[in-house]
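Input chain follows. Return structure tokens only.
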Amino acid sequence: MTRYLDAAALVELARRAEKKAAAPCSCTKTPLDGWQSQPLSLDETQLVEVATLTRDDDPEPTFAEYRPDNVQYWSPDAPIAPRYFPYNRCGVWECAQCGRLYLRYTEGGGYFVDRRIRALKSCLVEDVKEGSAPA
């Protein structure tokens, strides 16, 4: 079972990874600073799930988004708010080769399923209480 991380633990894990992951790696062929569909160039076998942002005690996580100043979902500068969508449905994945961390979730629509991925950056994590933020 994957361990749950709150915002503080997520920042700590991200900072440790950022210190050790400086070398180029095949996982960095495509910039993943903002959310995007997982690129085919990314070898999924080199990613290992190390944690989750999905709480066991929350059977239906919110679909509300945290978008201060109306920042766009796809923006590389969009904050990472673990209690808000899509972060509250993410796994935290580590590249087994270089140690970089990524957030991943599966977006499902009426006729499609899309695995999305975003690089985890500690400076973008915000611990915002659910229901207290602009959407």
